[in-house]
């Protein structure tokens, strides 16, 4: 009888030993299920953004359409769209200071790759800008006569250059000054170059100091050239000879 009890105990112990790994496996599976469930929940939180994707896509498409429409508008040569082109151009100049934003961006984040040309290393923050002559010559009409700018007589077929770095905010025909280029500088001022025979820059081009903007208009006798030059600061024209002396 005693031997039978010993045998039964041995069998029970043997079964317990066989069952223990199974139970541990079940526990491990349950733990893995819990871990997997919590990990999945964490992943779900990261996947879902905080903004509305549909709204974002709609706004992106509208912005792209407006951008393309503006590009097509400025490429059109029809006289019907000329007033609209002028309005949009003036609106962009008043509401967005391109040169100022460019300087701020480069000061904060450095020069963006392939977006803006690299500025010369000699230019340092805080220094007053050194203005270059748009073209050498003599003044035919001074600021007191015109009330806005000066007329300059120069050498035949001379190139007109930017007096300082900036962004071209206008390139086309203006009443009173003919073919005109307007460059906006980082301090918010503008330099105007008018009465040009040809224009060699496009709207929103970034130009460096002494970059060619166009050519002067030659006189009928073919001996000299003339161009118009003005500087606008704080929404008012100032005497350009106070900034850039021309002999």
UniProtKB/TrEMBL annotation:
CDD domains: M23_peptidase. Pfam families: Peptidase_M23. Transmembrane segments: none annotated. InterPro entries: Cell_wall_metabolism_enzyme (IPR050570), Dup_hybrid_motif (IPR011055), M23ase_b-sheet_dom (IPR016047). GO terms for molecular function: metalloendopeptidase activity. Residues 148-240 form the M23ase beta-sheet core domain. It comes from the Bacteria. PANTHER family: PEPTIDASE-RELATED, STAGE IV SPORULATION PROTEIN FA. This is M23 family metallopeptidase. It comes from Guptibacillus hwajinpoensis.
């Amino acid at each position: 009888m005693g031997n039978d009890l010993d045998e039964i105990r041995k069998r029970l112990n043997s079964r317990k030993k066989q069952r223990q790994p199974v139970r541990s496996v079940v526990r491990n599976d349950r733990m893995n299920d819990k871990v997997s469930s919590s990990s999945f929940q964490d992943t779900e939180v990261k996947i879902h953004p905080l903004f509305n994707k549909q709204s974002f896509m709609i706004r992106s498409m509208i912005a792209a359409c407006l951008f393309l429409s503006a590009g097509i508008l400025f490429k059109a040569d029809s006289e019907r769209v000329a007033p609209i082109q002028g309005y949009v151009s003036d609106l962009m100049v008043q509401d967005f200071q391109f040169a100022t934003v460019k300087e701020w961006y480069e000061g904060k984040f450095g020069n963006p790759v392939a977006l803006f040309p690299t500025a010369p290393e000699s230019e340092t923050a805080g220094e007053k800008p050194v203005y270059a002559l748009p073209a050498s010559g003599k003044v035919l009409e001074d600021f007191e006569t015109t009330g806005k700018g000066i007329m300059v007589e120069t050498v035949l077929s001379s190139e007109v250059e930017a007096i300082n770095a900036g962004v071209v905010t206008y390139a086309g025909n203006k009443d009173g000054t003919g073919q005109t280029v307007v460059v906006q500088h980082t301090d918010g001022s503008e330099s105007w170059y008018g009465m040009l025979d040809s224009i060699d820059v496009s709207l929103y081009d970034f130009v460096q100091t002494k970059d060619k903007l166009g050519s002067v208009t030659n006189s009928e006798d073919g001996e000299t050239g003339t161009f118009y030059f003005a500087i606008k600061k704080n929404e008012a024209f100032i005497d350009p000879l106070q900034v850039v002396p021309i002999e």
